[in-house]
């Protein structure tokens, strides 16, 4: 680990000043500290923001939800309002990491975590995300766990967060605070596809701080849930996953929100699947037909072609679990 300085911000003003001067924010530290230990990340200054007042969960009228950036994953998962209104969020969190990590890691840190690509974490391997212009070893290496959606010739790494898939499905908003004041960014625009600049992963400006994630009020009744498919039952990242939220009224699907994880360079919204569902009655036939659109645009690699079919089956299964059928 390389030498670095450490400061603890007493308030938001101090945090923003330190961030504007190049400091890296840290709270739970469950990702950044690992990367520093592996010398993948070499920040000169760490700014501890754990004392900031960003730990509230607020349920507004009609079910809108605001989650402070420093709320622990375990606390969000256990919150009565979250479990009642958006079980897809609780389920995604409970299927993430270990209980010990969920007790430490924050929501803001979770969506900021970096890829689990082994080449990114091996400082001797070529990686455009870690060292722009060096190449991507995963393209022609062992790429079984890599992305099939949103890839480019410069990067095929997946985003590892489970709850980010739920946020993408629910069309959340990220609230940011920086030197120029507060602004909001739709979750779909917050995490960036790699393109030719895979080293730029979030739509953050210099010194900006995540203060909250907001979920809009969605029509009721709303059924939702999260399904994760992985190589082993616990403490493993997704090969594929599906977050589904359906508003069914009068026997017809009025609204559908569907996203996938483990297959995209960012949590992958599935608008083609959603369009297939709207205005139709739930049925096993409908779930299968809609799920066929889940892999539209996929570009599988040598070792992860299986993800195309696995994604379709995962989405179909979760549609059936959430929506029922006949």
UniProtKB/TrEMBL annotation:
<dbReference type="InterPro" id="IPR016166">
    <property type="entry name" value="FAD-bd_PCMH"/>
</dbReference>
<feature type="domain" description="FAD-binding PCMH-type">
    <location>
        <begin position="1"/>
        <end position="220"/>
    </location>
</feature>
<dbReference type="GO" id="GO:0071949">
    <property type="term" value="F:FAD binding"/>
</dbReference>
<dbReference type="Pfam" id="PF00941">
    <property type="entry name" value="FAD_binding_5"/>
</dbReference>
<protein>
    <submittedName>
        <fullName>FAD-binding molybdopterin dehydrogenase</fullName>
    </submittedName>
</protein>
<dbReference type="InterPro" id="IPR005107">
    <property type="entry name" value="CO_DH_flav_C"/>
</dbReference>
<dbReference type="Pfam" id="PF03450">
    <property type="entry name" value="CO_deh_flav_C"/>
</dbReference>
<dbReference type="InterPro" id="IPR036318">
    <property type="entry name" value="FAD-bd_PCMH-like_sf"/>
</dbReference>
<dbReference type="InterPro" id="IPR002346">
    <property type="entry name" value="Mopterin_DH_FAD-bd"/>
</dbReference>
<dbReference type="InterPro" id="IPR036683">
    <property type="entry name" value="CO_DH_flav_C_dom_sf"/>
</dbReference>
<dbReference type="InterPro" id="IPR016169">
    <property type="entry name" value="FAD-bd_PCMH_sub2"/>
</dbReference>
<keyword id="KW-0560">Oxidoreductase</keyword>
<dbReference type="InterPro" id="IPR016167">
    <property type="entry name" value="FAD-bd_PCMH_sub1"/>
</dbReference>
<dbReference type="GO" id="GO:0016491">
    <property type="term" value="F:oxidoreductase activity"/>
</dbReference>
<dbReference type="InterPro" id="IPR051312">
    <property type="entry name" value="Diverse_Substr_Oxidored"/>
</dbReference>
